[in-house]
Amino acid sequence: MASKLHSPASFKTGDGVSLQYNQTGPPRGQPLLFITGWRQAAAEWRKQAEYFSSAGFRVTTFDQRGHGDSEGPDFGYRISRLAADLNDLLTHLDLQNVTIIGHSMGCSVSWALWDQFPDSHKRVSKFVFVDQSPSMVIDPHWNATETADAGALFTPVGVYDLAAGMAAQLESLVTSMFTTSVSESDLAWVVEQNKKMSDAHAAALLTDHSFRDWRDVIPRITVPTLVIGGEASLVPAAAIEWIAKQIPGAKAEIFTKAEKGSHFMFWENPEKFNAVVKEFVTR
Hints:
Residues 31-270 form the AB hydrolase-1 domain. With 283 residues, the chain is of the alpha/beta class.
């Protein structure tokens, strides 16, 4: 029987910002926490929330500050603060033995949580990292292999140019994250979710996010980990495989182009994505 969605709830972060979250599935179900990427809304996990809650899992999704339906103050748009918000949510809900599934920037938030809040390590049983580069900005001194392993996408100037032209470039940027088979209505809906965040806040967060380098944090992860990427994604598959090689026992799953392996493979191919994640979290 399908689980009914609970009414959205909210909580206050340590610096007084109201964030909205939603929990579905049986209260005693195995806990899963889904974290969105940059500028994305929690509603974009709906294909996972419906599937996993119906399968008996306790699913938590939430809108990060300035995203979706959460409060958007004029401060705190940096990964370190979003990690503190995540830690506040884990504490507020007293989540234990939770699998954290982070997409794109949601991986960076997870890595910052692991780095900044060692006391919360005991709450996390597993990680799933979905299509995020360990380091997004190209160091001009790197060779081609180093750039690919880091998954670097931008030059330093390119980051600032994108941030400055946020309004004009948003739709083309979102479109590049999907395959050409995505429907116009789906694409328009995702763009609408992105526009819930102000361009100014999105630009500030993008700049901070892009210049983070997580290559010294990733090898210190000690829980079972699944890393997912796609051949049709902006993020090089080599970077996904690099992450998996740094974490003992981690596995990489690369969606092929035929499997709609875009940056949003969880939206374009939810059947495979959900099956792969379910197999990982239940083994």
